[in-house]
Write a structure and sequence with these properties.
single chain, 266 residues, alpha/beta, Nitrilase/N-carbamoyl-D-aminoacid amidohydrolase, 8-stranded mixed β-sheet, 28% helix, globular, C-N_Hydrolase_sf, C-N_Hydrolase, Carbon-nitrogen family hydrolase
């Protein structure tokens, strides 16, 4: 599976400009014929103008049209980052996944909202963990802050996920956390992690970190960006994951009974 990560420099509060940039970067990325494109979190708006309801995409319609059009045009799977998605008066931080025919296959609402930034006041959390299949490969999603919760990635790994896609709008001030967490999720779960972080400036001159990365199940960095807008590409060799699991089958050594809250800690 060949993946392309679109590390966009997002224009704050300018959806038309960002959608045009998405079209431009997709055209560039498709020169290498990837199987999957990944976008960052809230790429249509940046992270994020307030009040968010005034800027949100009603039912994600504008975003879904763009994703559907380009996935069908280029016959490529697209993991569409996230969009501020207004459903009535509620706004969700939503990821859409489209297959090569332009069909919407998966919808995921970010489940963990970042309290320090006030995200809990502006968005509604999702309540479902999702998996999906791209070209026969079982995949999962975690959005930005979600990766601080190892239980989510572990649940996905236990469901047989081989590739975890992570759209994010992670700040430069916590770059070391970003780099450590995405690598840890890959190693501890023996999965590929494909992580797309946006670059540029968010609300209040927030500096986004960039540094998107593609990481294999051994923790090896297959590709890594700097702070500037760029396209990362790499091939995920699923046989490598199988070999790692055979040589060090950590899942067979789990003692789940000890991890359950019903077991007292002495």
């Amino acid at each position: 599976m060949k993946v392309a990560v679109l590390q966009m420099e997002v224009a704050f509060g300018a959806p038309e400009k960002n959608i045009a940039n998405f079209y431009r970067l997709t055209e560039q990325a498709m020169a290498q014929r990837p199987d999957v494109l990944l976008l960052p979190e809230l790429w249509r708006l940046g992270f994020y103008p307030r009040p968010i309801l005034d800027y949100a995409d009603a039912d994600g319609a504008q975003t879904r049209r763009a994703l559907a059009e380009l996935s069908a045009r280029y016959q490529v799977n697209i993991v569409g980052g996230t969009v501020a998605n207004a459903i009535g008066r509620q706004v969700f931080n939503t990821c859409y996944v489209f297959d090569r025919t332009g069909r919407l296959t998966t919808t995921y609402h970010k489940t963990h909202l970042f309290t320090p930034s006030g995200e809990k006041d502006d968005f509604q959390p999702g309540d479902s963990v999702v998996t999906f299949t791209l070209d026969g490969v079982k995949c999962g999603l975690a959005v930005c802050y979600d990766i601080r919760f190892p239980e989510l990635a572990r649940r996905l790994a236990l469901e047989g996920v081989a590739v975890l896609f992570v759209p994010a709008a992670w700040p430069l001030a916590r770059l070391i956390h970003w780099q450590t967490l995405i690598r840890a999720r890959a190693i501890e779960n023996q999965i590929f992690v494909v992580a797309c972080n946006e670059s540029g400036t968010g609300a209040g001159d927030l500096q986004l970190a960039g540094h998107s990365a593609i990481i294999d199940p051994w923790g090896e960095i297959l590709a890594q960006a700097g702070e500037q807008e760029t396209i990362l590409q790499s091939t995920l060799r699923l046989a490598v994951r199988q070999q790692i699991k055979e040589n060090m089958d950590v899942f067979s050594d789990r003692r789940e009974r000890l991890y359950l809250p019903k077991i007292p800690i002495s």
